[in-house]
Specification:
This protein has 370 residues and is of the alpha/beta class. Helices cover 46% and strands 12% of the residues. The relative contact order is 0.14.
Length: 370
């Protein structure tokens, strides 16, 4: 398992260490915008057929790395594997979002919830081990989970939602039930991520995709508190290597000052937040504590022509400001990413333009500093 990494820029940046370029990876980088992914998915027959088959999951995780010089791989899976293992019955209809057969909306359903047996998720851990082996040290592998709040949204709504009416109704009318769901989710997510780390994940990410739909006050009580409960239980290291922990709350920029003290290494940002402002708020100073930042270009830039993509990439990198270059101390660092997942309609060659621009401009910024 301890193949030396040929490219450790992502892990270094997560730990606020200097790198020769700003590392880049993309949320949902293995996905429907790639024709090779669509071909593998057709062979697998369904999304879950893809996610639960170790060989297919390994194949699609590596596809974007064969096409682009990305600095990290992310496990191919879904955030809803945990509630599925709780017995809620997950399915994906072609062209539609996820649906649960059972929903959690009343006392009986909440009482029946428990942290699932991790053997039910063995297909995920087998995929982690297989991908890590197939990567053979090319780049690090990121494991992930949905946040307790985000999972709860799907569990109560029974699928995606436009207005979060059912989950918010439960939260406001029966906060006791909501807190019970979230506590179980948090303990399940922590165990799930720790088991991914044991299987070979070199960093882990918590996707709080729906944290930003909450009112101020509710966010702190129903999302942030339970993300903290997950982080408190996560392994800090494995096989002598530090395991960085990334927290991404879509729409969470306004709560950055409160997220500054989260027990994690990296905070992900969506495109509504200025990186320079975020750096001032949470990035810290050289030699002192702080958070690495991840993000945050608007995924829709990828529909613009390549020269416009390069211009916007430079703007995002410049908004973060001069990169930390002192190899003797830690300091403010940045992992380039999208502000949310890549769209399935993205032209694949536009992604090449983005990755190339990140690498070339971020190297130039470092050379200009010296």
């Amino acid at each position: 398992m301890t193949t030396p990494l040929l490219n450790d820029s992502f892990l270094k940046a997560c730990l606020r260490q200097a790198t020769d370029h700003t590392p880049v990876w993309l949320m949902r980088q293995a996905g429907r915008y790639l024709p090779e992914y669509c071909a593998t998915r057709a062979k697998a027959g369904s999304f879950m057929g893809l996610a639960t088959n170790v060989d297919y999951a390994t194949e699609v995780t590596l596809q974007p790395l064969d096409r682009y010089p990305l600095d990290a791989a992310i496990l191919f899976s879904d955030i809803l594997t945990v509630p599925d293992a709780m017995g809620l019955g997950l399915s994906f209809a072609q062209g539609e979002g996820p649906k649960f057969e059972k929903v959690v909306r009343d006392e009986a359903a909440v009482a029946a919830l428990a942290v699932p047996d991790m053997h039910k998720l063995q297909y995920v851990f087998d995929a982690v081990t297989s991908i890590r082996k197939a990567l053979n040290g090319r780049v690090p592998l990121i494991g992930f989970s949905g946040s307790p709040w985000t999972l709860a949204c799907y569990m109560v709504e029974g699928g995606g939602s436009d207005d979060y009416r059912l989950v918010k109704s439960l939260m406001y009318s029966r906060p006791d039930l909501m807190h019970r769901i979230l506590a179980i989710n948090a303990d399940a997510v922590a165990l799930y991520l720790n088991t991914q780390i044991d299987a070979g994940a070199q960093a882990v990410m918590v996707f709080d995709s729906w944290g930003g739909v909450l009112a101020d006050g509710a966010f702190q009580s129903f999302s942030l508190a339970y993300t903290e409960r997950v982080l408190a239980q996560l392994k800090r290291s494995h096989d002598g290597q530090t395991i960085p922990r990334i927290v991404f709350t879509k729409g969470g920029g306004l709560w950055l000052p409160e997220m500054k003290d989260l027990d994690c290494e990296v905070l992900g940002l969506d495109w509504t937040m200025n990186l320079g402002t975020a750096r001032q708020l949470v990035g810290g100073k050289a030699g002192g504590p702080g958070k690495a930042l991840q993000g945050n270009i608007d995924p829709n830039i990828l529909f613009a022509p390549p020269d416009a993509i390069a211009t916007e990439v430079r703007r995002v990198l410049d908004s973060f400001g001069p990169p930390h270059t002192d190899t003797h101390t830690s300091g403010p660092t940045h992992v380039f990413n999208l502000g949310h997942g890549i769209s399935q309609f993205t032209p694949p060659d536009h992604v090449s333009a983005l990755v190339e621009a990140v690498h070339s401009h971020s190297k130039a910024m470092r050379q200009a500093k010296h």
